[in-house]
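hiii, so i know i said id send this last week but things got crazy w the move. better late than never?? heres the sequnce for the chain we talked about at the cafe, plus the structure i predicted for it. fair warning i was half asleep when i ran it
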Amino acid sequence: MAAIWARYNAMLEAQPLLTKALTSLTGFTAGDVLAQTFIEPADKPFDYMRTLRLGSFGFLIHGTTGHFFYGMIDSKLPGTAPMTVVTKVAIDQTLWNPIFGLLFFGYLNFTEGKSWAQYIDKLNADLKTAVMGSWTVWIPAHTINFRFVPPAQRLLYINSIQIFYNVFLSFLGNKSVEEAPEAEKKAE
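okay and structure toks below
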């Protein structure tokens, strides 16, 4: 185990962006496999394209944006003092969390070939749930993250928790949006 940890840290030092992207690829792939295996109905066939979409989101979007976002937040708010930690968590959950939701649902929408209207419907149906669901996991997790985890290890820590949170995201991201009745659409 020590050799794996040393190899990971050497890779993180040599190629931090790629390492974090690969770590996120692993976390999002594992989360979707768990969601499809244990949450979805047993008679529903395994959707390999769904897993590919989630894994590629981890690699292309989550790992890369996380690398830059957490690097930026640590550079602007260095340290682990309690008020610094509270500020970092507040920024993460009030700014980054909704942006992440827009990116997540937008990426899935795009890779599934859905329309802009379908994306807006998905946001209206599920963005609030995703953001509020995030608070239950990520406020305590990021309090620990910003207080105790070294900056270089933040995304690994996040992805360790993200595997289980991704079960929720995978389910939410892949559930159908109910069509609003025509009368409700006209009233909006």
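btw DSSP finds seven helices and no strands in the chain. thought thatd interest u
miss u guys!!
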